Amino acid sequence: MDKHVESFAGRSELLDQLRRGENTDWDVIVIGGGITGAGVLREAARLGLRVLLLEQKDFAWGTSSRSSKMVHGGLRYLASGDWKLTRHSLLERERLLQELPGLVERMGYYFTVREGTFPGRFAMGLVLRVYDLMAGIKDHRFVALPELLQRFQGLSQKSLRGACYYTDAITDDARLVLRVLQEARAEGARTLNYVSVSKLLLGSDGVEGVEACVPETGEILSLTARVVINATGAWADRLRGQLTPEKRIRPLRGSHIVLPYDALPVDAALALLHPRDKRAVFVFPWEGASVVGTTDLDHPEDLDIEASISNDEVDYLLEVVQQQFPTNTIGRENILSTYAGVRPVIAAEQAKDPSKERRDHAVWFNEGLVTVSGGKLTTFRLIALDALAAAAARLPAPKAATGDRVFTPTTVTADSLKLADRALAQRLVARFGNLATRVVEEAGEGETRRLAGSDYCLAELRFSLRHEGVMQLDDLLLRRTRLGQLLADGASALLVQLKPLCQQELGWSEDYWQSECQRYQLLWSRYYGVPLVAPEEVVHAGS
Ligand SMILES: Cc1cc2nc3c(=O)[nH]c(=O)nc-3n(C[C@H](O)[C@H](O)[C@H](O)COP(=O)(O)OP(=O)(O)OC[C@H]3O[C@@H](n4cnc5c(N)ncnc54)[C@H](O)[C@@H]3O)c2cc1C
Questions:
Q1: C-beta of residue 489 within 8 angstroms of C-beta of residue 335
Q2: How far apart are CA 5 and CA 20, in angstroms?
Q3: What contacts 541, CB < 8 A, 6 or more positions away?
Q4: Which of 158, 162, 184, 272 has the most CB atoms around its CB within 10 Å?
Q5: What is the pLDDT of residues 75-121, one digit of tens each?
Q6: Angle between helices 422-432 and 458-467 (to 10 degrees)
Q7: Which residue puts its alpha carbon closest to atom 25 of ligand 1?
Q8: DSSP 245
Q9: Which protein residues touch ligand 1 with a CB less than 6 Å away?
C-alpha cells in the first residue's frame, strides 16, 4: 500500500498488537491529536524516532478544528510589541503558503478606518509596513472609499474613510491537522484516535509511560516510552496535574457564526471594530460561506463537554454585522451553523482582560513529562521543535535531518486527474496532495461530481471513510469535510446519499446507521446549531 495512503488505516491491527503486548514500547508517546500533537509527531518521525500519537476523540476534534482558520502573523501581537512571535509566525505563514498551495491560501484583509476611531490610517499603515517587511512582502496599501464600497456592498458608510489593506492566509484547520498526521505516518509514526490517556505511569526515572483507555471495549493498555509529550491544549493541566498542583492554562472560548454567502457576500476578510468594546471582529469567506468571529471569553465550563456558542455570543456577533451591514437584514434565521473552540492561553501571573493575555506557547518539563500548550495553528512546526528540544536529553541521537519541509511536494496536477470540473480537480489536489489520484481512482460512478450547494464531491467522502480513520458521522461531516457546517441543518439532506457509502466502507448495519444519524443530529443541534432562545428572552429582546 502507498505509504501515504496507509496513513490512518490499521487502527484495529495496531490495537490488536498493543493488546498482545507487541509494539508497546516507544521512543515518544504524544498525547493529543490537534495541530500541536500532529506537529510534534511529524518532527519526531523525521528524526527517526518510534512515535505514537493518542487522541481521546477524533483527530482535530479539539480547538484545531474550531479556530478562525487564519494562517497569520497576528497583527495584534505586533501591535502589542510581540515582535518575535509576529516574525516567526509570518515566516511560518510564508512557508505554509509555499508548501501547501491551495490548502493554505493568501487572502486579502481590509481593516476599516472610520473617523475618530483608533487605529487610524497612519498608525495602521505604519504597523502594516513593519508587518510586510518582516514577512519579506509588500502587499499593504490604503484603499479609498469607492473601491472599498465596491468590494463590500452594503457596508455602512457612516464616518467611513476607507480601509488599510494587507494580506494573510486562510486554511481548513482540520484538514491541515490531517495533512500533518499523514506526513508523520508516511515516516513511520502511528496514530490512534478514540484512545484516551487516563494516567501517567511513574517509575524510578519519572514518567515512563501511560495508561490508555479504548472506549469501545473499556480496555486499559499500558504503554511505555522514553518521553511522554502532553500536547492536550486546553486540557494540558489535567495530565500535568498528576505531577504538580500548578495550573497554567486559562481556557478562553472563541465562537463563530457561519452565514450563507448570499446573506453576507464577502470575498476577502474584513476587520470590524465591535461597537460595544472596540474589539476587532472578522468577517471572512471560507469554503463558500461567510464566517463572523471571534469572541474571547473565559470558559469555566467542563472541558469534557463540547464547547458551544452562547446566546449572548450570537447576539454580540450579529450586532456587529447588523451595525456595519444595515441593509443586509441579517438575523438568527440566516445562520447556517455555529462553532466554538477553547483557546489554551498561558495565564499571566496577574489575571488580565481575556483579550490582553499573550498567545505564545509554553513548554514545561516535569519528571519526564513534556507539556506543550498555547500558541497558534500557524506556528505548529516551531512549537514542535521546542517540545522536542525539551525532551532531547531522554531521546536517542537523531538520524541525519532530511531537509525541513513539513509536506512532501505535490507532483500530481489538476490536469492529470482528468476531471471535467477543473476547479474541483484543483481543490482535490490542494486538499489531498499526491493522494488526489487515489481519491479519483477509488471513486464510484458519478462520485466526482460536486454535491449540490457545495464544493465537495462524494469521492472524497468515500476516500475519508476508507482511509482517514472515520469512526463516527461527525468525524466525516465536521472534520474530514465541513459539510455539517456549510449546508443547512448540519447537511441532514445529504444523509441519504451517505448511507450506502458508510455501509460499504465501514460495514454499518441499518440499525447502527439509524442510531448514528440520531446521535449526529442531536450533537449538531446542541453544539453546532443556533442555541434556542427561551421565550422570556425573546420578549425581553423585543421590548
Ligand atoms: C476561537 C479560536 C480562534 C483561533 N484562531 C486561530 C487562527 O486563526 N490562527 C491560528 O494560528 N490560531 C488560532 N487559534 C489558536 C489555535 O486554534 C490553537 O492554538 C490550536 O488549535 C491548539 O492546538 P492544540 O493541538 O494545542 O490543541 P487541540 O486542538 O485542542 O488538541 C488537543 C487535543 O488533545 C486531546 N486530549 C485531551 N486530553 C486527552 C487525553 N487525556 N488523552 C488523549 N487525548 C486528549 C483533545 O481531545 C484535543 O483534540 C484560535 C483558537 C481559538 C479558540
A1: no
A2: 25
A3: 315, 533
A4: 184
A5: 888 877 888 889 999 999 999 999 999 999 999 999 999 988 878 89
A6: 20
A7: 34
A8: -
A9: 31-37, 54-57, 61-64, 67-70, 72, 196-197, 231-235, 239, 254, 294, 341-344, 373, 375-378
